[in-house]
Amino acid sequence: MNSQAEFQTKAFRTSSSRPGHGWDIWRPLSVAEPTAVNLRIISPGRKTKMKKLFFVATAASLVFAGHAFAHAQLKSAVPAADSTVKQAPSELDLTFTEGLNLKFSGVKVAGPQKAAVKTGQGMLMNGDSTLMVPITDKLTAGKYTVEWHALSADGHKTSGTYSFTVAP
Ligand SMILES: [Cu+2]
To answer: What is the CATH architecture of 74-166?
Structure first.
């Protein structure tokens, strides 16, 4: 190698390894435009972190989606939905999948010919997940519809309707 070729090689190496020179290496990185340069600065460790973040975000969205179906749904009732009872109940027990906020939870009961049934002050039992509502009217034979609304302790509203029949 002659001395001039050696000098040129050194000069090239020097200029391309100096910050501020060799713009193809030190060009500004753009997040919106993933380039080979961008990908190169993401170390294997950072890739793993991003994978973890993606996993956490996916899991979180699944949890939220699942929760939309989970909060304060009616689990069971006494008298049970679609049941026929011989004895007129003196109270309704509605058990939910979550604890309720009593102030914003309650029932409306309608009897045959949609006549309103008088109910007393509801109360919560069973870790606030069972709403007990006294029935002040004496229920006669017929089909009764319970329209319930609930506010769960986590602040979500749900509502629903079920019926039972009194057949002494
Ligand atoms: Cu909820």
So the answer is: Sandwich (2.60)
Residue 166 has pLDDT above 60, yes or no: yes
Q: How many CB atoms lie within 10 A of CB 38?
A: 13
Q: How far, in Å, is the centroid of ligand 1 from the Cα of 115?
A: 32
What pLDDT shows up at residue 23? Answer: 39
CA angle 27, 31, 32 (to 5 degrees): 110
CA of residue 23 to ligand 1 center, whole Å: 54
Distance, CA of 152 to CA of 78 (rounded, Å): 20
**What pLDDT does 93 receive?**
98
| Cβ-Cβ contacts under 8 Å for 64 (sequence gap 6 or more) | none
155 Cα–ligand 1 center, Å: 6
pLDDT tens figures, 125-152: 999 999 999 999 999 999 999 999 999 9
Centroid of ligand 1 to alpha carbon of 106 (angstroms) = 17
Domain ranges of the chain: 3-70, 74-166
pTM of the model: 0.61
